[in-house]
Amino acid sequence: MLIELGHYALILTFSIALIQSVLGLIYWRKDNRIAEFVRLAAIWQFFLTLFSFLALIYAFVVSDFSLSLAYQHSYSLQPLIYKITGTWGNHEGSILLWILTLTLFNAAVAIFGKNLPTQLRTLVLSMQGVMVVAFAGFSIFTSNPFARLSPAPFEGTDLNPILQDIGLALHPPLLYLGYVGFSVCFSFAIAALISGKIDAVWARWVRPWTIISWIFLTLGNVMGSYWAYYELGWGGWWFWDPVENSSFMPWLVGTALLHSAIVMEKRNALKIWTIFLAIMTFSLSLLGAFLVRSGILTSVHAFASDPTRGLVLLALLGFFIGVAFTLFALRAPSLRAGGLFAPISREGSLVLNNLFLATATAAVLVGTLYPLFLDALTGERISVGAPFFDLTFSILMVPLLIILPFGAFLSWKRADLIAVTQRLMGAAMLALLITIIIFMLTGRRISLAPLGIYLGFWVSFGAIADLIFRSKFGKIPFRESIKRLFRLPKHIWSTALAHLGVGLTVIGVVTVSAWESENITTMQVGQNAELAGYNIKFTVAEERKGPNYITEHFEFDVTGKNGKTKKAVSEKRVYVASSMPTTEAAILTYGLSQLYITVGDLDVDGARVVRIWFKPYILLIWFGPLLMAGAGFLSLSDRKARIGIPKLAKNRLSRNKKVKAS
Amino acid sequence: MTRKQKKLTLIAGLGLVLALAATLIFTALSDKITFFYSPSELVEEPIGVNQPFRIGGLVKEGSWIREGKKNIFIITDNAEDITVIYEEILPDLFREGQGVVAEGSLNENNEFIATNVLAKHDENYMPKEVVETLKERGEWKRTEDGENN
C-alpha cells in the first residue's frame, strides 16, 4: 500500500510541476497569485517526492520483495545500511534520488529566495518545474521504481557487491547535489535571458547556488575517486574513464563559472560569458547523466542499457540544451558589455583562468566523445585513455597553475605586474628551494616531476603569501599582523584556502604518479616481502563468514621504517546471493602516504600472488579538494554571499553596532 | 592602451590559447589512442611488435595457466585465438568462458603481453566491444541481454 502511495506521490509531483511550469512561464510577468502558487508548488513537490523516496526506502528496509526493484537489488541478510543505500544503487532508484535533489533545490529557492524579485523567482522556479516534469516523467513512464512483482519472491538477488560499501551512501547523493544544483544556475541563466535583466545583482544571486553546487560536486568527485581507489583494488585513484570525465567536466566548467561570476558581480563584465558557462555547466551535467545512464559506455556506473531510456534521455538533453542555446543566440547580442579592464588586472587573470579551464574541458570532452563518434561514423573501435588526457590536460593546466597565484594579488581594473611579481618572489624562491632540496635528498633522476612539484609548491605558497601580505606581516608589529590575519574577510581566506587545496592536490598527483613503487610477488603464509623500506609479513590466510558473503581473510604484519608493526587486513569475498567476488584491499596509512596490498588467487603450490604498492603522499590528492570544498563553505558563510538580497535595513543596523563595538 | 587595443590583445591571446589547445588535442588524438581488435581482425590485418592496442573476446575454456605470478590464457572469438601473458593480479571477475578486454602489445612470438586486463564489473556485464565482435562473428548466443539489473 505504502509503495502505491509513494508511486502516487511521484505522479502528483509530476502533475503539480506541469501546472506550475505552464502557468509560471505564461504569467510570470503579470500575476502575483500565480507567483505565490509557483513558489508553494515547489515546496509541495519536495515533500511529495520525499514521501515517495521514503516509501521506497521503507520497502527496501523491510525487504519487501514484491517490489521488483528491491527483489533485484536487495537481500534480506544485507546489513541495514546497504539495504537503505541499495535504494539508489540502481537505475530507477537513482533517478528518484535525482528528482528528490532537484525538488530539494527548488524548495530551497522557494524558501530562501523570498527576497528575490518576484518575476525572477517565478521564472527560475517555473524552469525548474520543467525539469521536474522531464525527470519525473522519465521516471514514471520509462523507469518506474515502484513496479510490483507477483507472486512476490521470498528472497532478493542482492545488491552488486561492489556497491555494498559506505561509498554508496555518500558518493551518489553528493554528486547529485552538485549536478542538480547547477540546474538552479541554469534556470537563473534562462530566466535572465527571458527577462533580459542581467546585471551585477543577478550575479550576486547566482553565486551562492554556484558555490553550493560546486562544493557538493567537488565532494562527490573526491568521494568517488577515493571509493574507486579502495574498493576496486586496482590502486588507482583516477582512470580518465568516460564516466569519471562526465562528472569532471561539469566541475571544470563550474569552477570557471565560480570565477567569472565574481567578475560579473564586482565589475559587471563578462555577462554573456557567465550566462554561457551557467548553461554549459548544467548541459554537461545532463550529458553526463545521458552517457552514464544510456548504456552507451561500459562502466561500473552503467546500470541500464535500455535503448528507450537512452533515447528519452538524449531527447531531454537535446531539449534543454536546444532551448537554452536558442534563447542564448537570440538574446545574448542585446546584452550590453559592462566594465572595462586592462589585460593585466584581476579581471584579466580571471579571464585567463576561464580560458584554460574551458579549453581543458573541451579537451576532455573531445577525448570522451571521439570514440563514440568514430564508432558511429566509421565503425572503428578505439579507446582514448589516460595517455591522451594526461598529455592534453596537464599541458593546459601548466599555464593555469603558473598564473594562479598572481590572480589574487592583482587589483581590479588595472594592475602593476612588476609590483605583484616582487611580492610573489618570496613564494617562487621558497618553492624552488624546496623542490631542489627534495631532489637533492632523494636523488631522483631528472624528469617532468620537478616541474609538477614546483608548480604545486608555487601555488600553495602563493596562496599563503596572499594571506601574509594582506595581514601586513613584517610591516606592522607581529601581534597586530596576527590580529589582522584573523580579521581578514572570509572571502579572502576562502580564496587562499581553495588555492592552497589546488597546490596540495597537484603535489599529491605528481608524487604518486612519479614515485609510486610496487612489488608483485608470490607469497606463502610466513614469508616476507620488502617495499620502500617496509617489511611485509604474510601471517594469516583463512576462510571466514560475513553476513551475506564468505571470504578468504588475509592478514599481514607490516613493519615500518620506525620499527613499529601494524596489522593489515585484506579479503577476497564471494557474495552468496550473486556468487560475485570482490577484493577488499588492505590499506595502511603512514602520514600522508599509504601502503596498499591486494591478494590474488591461490597458486598450485599454495602460494598467493600478492601485489603491494607504496603510494607516497597520496592522501594529498583527496585532502586538497576537501580543503577546496571547506573553503567553499567558508565563502558561503561570508556576509557578501548570502542567498537573496541581504535585508538592507537590518544589515546596516548590525554593521553600525559592529562599528560601535569595535 | 585604447579600448580597441585592449580588445585586440584579449582576442589575440584567446586565439593563441585556442590554437595551442586545438593542436594539442589533434596531435594527441592521432598519437595517443589505442585501437580495439578481435583475434580474427588481428589475423586479417596484423599489427607490428610493441605497438599498443586492445584485444577483446572470450577467455577460452581450459586455457588459463598460471606459473607463479604469470598468467597465460587464450582470448578467442571462436574463430581465431591469441595467447595473452599477464604478470599481475587478474581482476576478480576474470573467468574462463567469459568476456575480457586486454591492453598491451605483441611480442616477437606473436603473444600478447598485457599491461592491463579488464573484466566485467558485474555478473551480467560484458565489454561492449566484445559483444559487438561476437555478434559480427555470429557467435552471440545469449538469450537475454542481461543488463537489466
Low-confidence stretches of chain B: 121-125, 141-149
- Helix percentage range of chain A: 55-70%
Rounded mean pLDDT score of chain A: 88
Beta-strand content of chain A: 5-15%
Shape of chain A: globular
- Output the CATH topology of the largest domain in chain B: OB fold (Dihydrolipoamide Acetyltransferase, E2P)
Structural domain count of chain A: 4
Report the order of strands and helices of chain B.
Answer: HEHEEEEEEH
Mean pLDDT of chain B: 78
The ordered string of helix (H) and strand (E) elements of chain A is HHHHHHHHHHHHEHHHHHEEEEEEEEEHH
Distance between the termini of chain A: 62 Å
Could you name the CATH homologous superfamily of the largest domain in chain B?
Nucleic acid-binding proteins
Task: Write out key terms for the chains shown.
heterodimer; A: 662 residues; alpha+beta; 4 domains; five-stranded antiparallel sheet; four-stranded antiparallel sheet; 19 helices; B: alpha+beta; OB fold (Dihydrolipoamide Acetyltransferase, E2P); 2 domains; disordered C terminus
Summarize the structure.
The complex is a heterodimer of chains A (662) and B (149). Chain A has 662 residues and is an alpha+beta fold.
Task: Give the topology, please.
The complex is a heterodimer of chains A (662) and B (149).
Chain A: H1 2-27, H2 32-61, H3 68-73, H4 80-85, H5 91-112, H6 118-142, H7 166-195, H8 200-231, H9 242-267, H10 271-293, H11 307-331, H12 346-378, E1 382-384, H13 386-409, H14 417-442, H15 449-470, H16 478-487, H17 490-515, E2 517-523, E3 528-531, E4 534-545, E5 549-559, E6 565-575, E7 580-584, E8 586-590, E9 593-602, E10 608-615, H18 619-637, H19 648-661
Antiparallel strand pairs in A: 2-10, 3-4, 4-5, 5-6, 6-7, 8-9, 9-10
Helix pairs in contact in A: 1-2, 1-6, 2-5, 2-6, 5-6, 5-7, 6-7, 7-8, 7-10, 8-9, 8-18, 9-10, 9-12, 10-11, 12-13, 13-15, 13-17, 14-15, 15-17, 17-18
Chain B: H1 3-31, E1 33-37, H2 39-44, E2 53-59, E3 65-67, E4 70-76, E5 81-86, E6 99-106, E7 112-118, H3 128-136
Parallel strand pairs in B: 1-2, 5-7
Antiparallel strand pairs in B: 2-4, 2-6, 3-4, 4-5, 6-7
